[in-house]
């Protein structure tokens, strides 16, 4: 049954229209009356009619004004004007407002019914189309998570096919000019940890996915083993260092959510911002490397924090790439297993010719060394100069791999040491001014989160404690001169408030600046 609102200031006109409709189309309409424009607007809001017969000339709010107001709120309603010949020009204007049709007074029964039937048929057709659209939308809603899973898996497994990729991106309505990847890893040290992860795995993935999407527009992969990935678009106008800090903040939120809700330890690796889908793929590899770097000091790691060099060359998806990934992540046991697998296949495929196998192994080691080590090809080749026989080849190859792993560990330690030394030098030059940890972290190209952890590990002090010690040591030196006032010393040591300086000095040394100067007097 349809709802028909009849708006006319004359009761006889309303009743006449109702009578004609009810006789010609019995039982199909529920009738609502309105004696003026204001009442018509009110009834449209309250009753939500399907059709409205609207008289143009009414007291107060007139027909066109009421039409304009109703159409602004209820665009689906079908309005039919009922107007006298004198106001036909108004009917033309009403058509521009969205009115579906008009009838001239006095209304003829056949014309009235024909207009109603036509509008009812169009309404039913709209409902049918809307139903089909809703059905398609429902199917699409079910399909989108599958498309998201497929796209994220293609990025993670490095099996992108151009046609499928374009189709999935279009289907998901994604605009990835640039973005980064984040890998969430749930480490487990004992069997009970693994069993707990398995018991909450499905709910964990669903809740983390929902929470991540509430925070940022992103794609979330399925959980594979104890890992899942998040892909986040970023604006092209953003600064690199700012993007890195924002990504770490997002990671901290995810970590806090997972650990509070599920009582699970979570390590997060974050890749650099890359352009397009290929950039996302590389970012995922970087994030996987950062998340698996168990030698690090923090559990949220950005790739640029742990790899202070200009990127890692991309290589084909083969055994060498997998081995390179394991080496870059400094996952020594995985690297050993992959290397030995490659070595044994080379040995098996070379038959009795150990020279062919030796050349292949040397070529592999040289290729790896170019990307992760400073060792020269000549040095690597020299170690295989006297190798003869498969047993000797296995031993030498394994030794060279271990040497490569040791070189990487030493290089990493030296790199971190150099970064901290640069930071200490920067602090030494600026501690007398308004220096902050964030400024220092940006100077050495580390995120504040990573910098604070690494700085304390290498110096044994927090950033604030380190700066405070330098300032207090400087103040002590200046207090030896009786020509300087306490206020001058305060400013020269890097403090802006003499009272605060006095409190910090006493907290650090156990005495006030005055007492300290008195102790210096003979």
Automatic annotation (TrEMBL):
The keyword DNA-binding applies. Residues 421-519 form the HTH araC/xylS-type domain. The modification 4-aspartylphosphate is found at residue 55. It comes from Paenibacillus anseongense. Residues 3-120 form the Response regulatory domain. Residues 391-418 form a coiled coil. InterPro entries: CdaR_GGDEF, CheY-like_superfamily, Homeodomain-like_sf, HTH_AraC, HTH_AraC-typ_CS, Sig_transdc_resp-reg_receiver, Tscrpt_reg_AraC-type_HTH. Keywords: Coiled coil, DNA-binding, Phosphoprotein, Transcription, Transcription regulation. Gene3D superfamilies: 3.40.50.2300, Homeodomain-like. The lineage of its organism: Bacteria, Bacillati, Bacillota, Bacilli, Bacillales. This is Response regulator. PROSITE patterns: HTH_ARAC_FAMILY_1, HTH_ARAC_FAMILY_2, RESPONSE_REGULATORY. Signal peptide: none annotated.
């Amino acid at each position: 049954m349809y709802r028909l609102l009849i708006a006319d200031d004359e009761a006889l006109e309303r009743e006449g229209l109702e009578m004609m409709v009810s006789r010609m189309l019995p039982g199909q309409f529920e009738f609502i009356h309105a004696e003026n424009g204001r009442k018509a607007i009110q009834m449209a809001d309250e009753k939500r009619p399907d059709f409205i017969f609207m008289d143009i000339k009414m007291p107060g709010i007139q027909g066109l004004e009421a039409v304009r107001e109703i159409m602004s709120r209820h665009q689906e309603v079908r309005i039919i004007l009922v107007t006298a010949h004198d106001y036909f020009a108004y009917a033309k204007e009403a058509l521009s407002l969205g009115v579906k049709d008009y009838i001239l007074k006095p209304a003829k029964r056949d014309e009235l019914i024909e207009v109603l039937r036509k509008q009812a048929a169009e309404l039913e057709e709209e409902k049918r189309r809307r139903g089909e659209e809703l059905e398609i939308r429902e199917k699409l809603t079910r399909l989108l998570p599958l498309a998201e899973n497929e796209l994220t898996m293609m990025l993670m497994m490095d099996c992108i096919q151009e046609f499928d990729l374009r189709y999935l991106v279009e289907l998901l309505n994604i605009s990835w000019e640039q973005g980064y990847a984040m890998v969430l890893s749930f480490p487990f040290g004992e069997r009970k940890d693994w069993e707990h992860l398995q018991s909450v795995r499905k709910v964990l993935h669903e809740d983390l996915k929902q929470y991540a999407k509430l925070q940022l527009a992103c794609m979330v992969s399925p959980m594979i083993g104890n890992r899942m990935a998040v892909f986040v678009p970023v604006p092209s106008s953003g600064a690199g260092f700012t993007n890195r800090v924002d990504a770490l903040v997002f990671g901290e939120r995810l970590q806090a959510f997972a650990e509070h809700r599920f009582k699970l330890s979570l390590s997060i690796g974050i890749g650099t911002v890359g352009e397009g889908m290929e950039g996302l793929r590389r970012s995922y590899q970087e994030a996987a490397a950062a998340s698996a770097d168990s030698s690090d000091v923090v559990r949220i790691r950005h790739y640029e924090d742990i790899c202070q060099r200009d990127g890692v060359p991309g290589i084909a998806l083969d055994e060498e790439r997998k081995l390179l990934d394991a080496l870059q992540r400094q996952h020594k046991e995985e690297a050993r297993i992959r290397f030995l697998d490659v070595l044994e296949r080379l040995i098996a495929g070379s038959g009795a010719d150990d020279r062919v196998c030796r050349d292949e192994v040397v070529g592999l080691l040289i290729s790896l060394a170019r990307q992760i080590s400073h060792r020269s090809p000549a040095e690597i080749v020299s170690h295989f100069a006297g190798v003869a026989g498969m047993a000797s080849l296995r031993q030498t190859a394994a030794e060279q791999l271990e040497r490569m792993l040791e070189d990487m560990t030493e290089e990493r330690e030296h790199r971190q040491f150099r970064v901290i030394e640069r930071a200490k030098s920067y602090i030494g030059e600026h501690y007398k001014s308004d220096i902050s940890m964030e400024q220092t972290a940006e100077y050495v190209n580390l995120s504040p989160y990573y910098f604070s952890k690494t700085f304390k590990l290498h110096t044994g002090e927090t950033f604030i404690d380190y700066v405070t010690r330098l300032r207090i040591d400087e103040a002590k030196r200046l207090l030896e001169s009786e020509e300087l006032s306490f206020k001058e010393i305060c400013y020269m040591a890097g403090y802006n408030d003499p009272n605060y300086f006095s409190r910090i000095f006493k907290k650090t040394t156990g005495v006030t600046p005055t007492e300290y100067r008195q102790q210096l007097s003979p």
